[in-house]
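Form P-L/3: holo structure prediction, ligand fe (ii) ion.
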Amino acid sequence: MPTSRRSLLIAFLTLPLIAARTRAFAQAGPELPLTPECRDGDEFTLEREAGPFFKPNSPRNRELQADAIGGDRMTVAGFVLDKRCRPLAGSLVEIWHADENGHYDSVGFRLRGHQFTDAQGRWWFNTIVPARYPGRTRHFHFKVQRPGGRVLTTQLYFPGEPGNAGDGLFHETLLLDMKQTGDGRFGRFDFVV
Ligand SMILES: [Fe+2]
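OUTPUT (holo model):
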């Protein structure tokens, strides 16, 4: 039976409780192994420009897939961490992206939303795969802000996209960890702020 986005999301929301603890204690002593995701001295997530389509005051909403009925379904999820791999609860995570035709909604708030990370520092959106548009490879836009911290503006990219190499904003450290599921895709990325 093919994996579903929901089953991967549930796996993310349950198993990583242990991983989160491992991350939290990763710096507690040199004898403790670091998780593969938590390399000692992780760098801050790279900044990328917001571009012309950011719009403030997005709704608090993580269920965006109904905004684009014709789009290929995708769940995107991850942690917000500090540089010592400690999960940051209550962090703002805001997404905006193009629809299945490569268009942004500049009138309303289709495919725009924000949320705050849970007690384990986790966030997720159920949305669609954005289409490419002229001059850009496939991408999501994000703003991330830990409580009381500065705002990180960045973009996340898709592995295996022919347009990545020719896009001056692309960077491999901003690639989603992507899994194909029976009902779409599941992309994982942990922000370090
Ligand atoms: Fe864009």
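COMMENT: The longest strand covers residues 73-81.
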